[in-house]
Amino acid sequence: MRICLISSESVYTDAALHALLGFHEIKITGLVQCTAVAGTQSNWRAYKNLIARSGLLYAGYLGVVTSPALRLPHVPRWQRMGVWANSLRCPFLATNTISAPQTLDFIEGSDADIVLTVHLGQILRDAFYERFSGRTYNIHPGRLPSYRGPDPVFHAIMNKERTFTVSLHESIRRIDAGQVLAEKTIKPEKKTLFRTNLELFRQTGQLVSSQFLGSRDCLPKSEERPAHYFGWPTTGETLKFLATGNRL
């Protein structure tokens, strides 16, 4: 199984790569790093907008998990995607636009069986799907379709969920709306935003194995709750999250 992985660099991406490479049948044939934190904006503008919406504390959390230089003691050491590419001896591209022609050519040149997105903060455009529709999949740290959106774990904790689900689903033009192919539900020991997300992304290898390597041990269950999209947390939601005893 040859995979081209696309991600906004983070400790969660590092965890997903470790999990994938735990299966000898999986080979990473290309790594694409999206250098834009959100959309195609430069990092300083993206963080400025995030602070305006979600507050300084939430923006600080996101900064810690996306920058090794800001690592806190409770965050494990992790490698940048360029370092991963060197150790795996696979092609690597850093870009702020995943759907740009040169990026699409790079992905095509990786000769991958599937394209996998993990912790990607950019919406894929029509030009991308014109070339990779039907073989692009996403790892989403939430139950679908009831927890769509960029940070479903935050909202699941706010909603006092006791278990948390990570999903492998088809990537289509509508956000987090593709068919769910595999899922894994966990009950984390430490229900912080960071620890829960980290444990969910560590299931990436099992999800891919279930769907593409024939293990079939992460089959999805039907979801009776209605579809719901949760956006980035607001400052008020972040303060309420912390005031009720939750931790980032």
Structure report:
- Helix content is 37%, strand content 17%.
- It is an alpha/beta fold.
- Helix 2 packs across helix 3 (56-66).
- The longest helix has 12 residues, at 43-54.
- The relative contact order is 0.18.
Q: Any chance you could write out the topology, listing elements then pairs?
A:
Blueprint: E1 2-7, H1 11-20, E2 27-34, H2 43-54, H3 56-66, H4 81-88, E3 92-95, H5 101-109, E4 114-118, H6 126-132, E5 136-140, H7 152-158, E6 164-170, E7 180-186, H8 193-201, H9 204-212, H10 235-243
Key traits:
248 residues; 17% strand
Brief account:
It is built from ten helices and seven strands. With 248 residues, the protein is α/β, with parallel strands linked by helices.
Give, in order, the helices and strands. Answer: EHEHHHEHEHEHEEHHH
Structural class: alpha/beta
What does the largest sheet look like?
7 strands, mixed
C-alpha geometry: globular
Q: Roughly how much helix do the residues carry, as a percent range?
A: 25-40%
Uncertain parts? none
Write out the strand line-up for the largest beta sheet, numbering strands in chain order: 3-2-1-4-5-6-7
- How many distinct beta strands? 7
C-alpha Rg, in Å? Answer: 17 Å
For the terminal residues, how far apart are their CA atoms?
35 Å
* Beta-strand residue fraction: 15-25%
By DSSP (H or I, 4+ residues per run), the number of helices equals 10
- What value does the average pLDDT take? 93
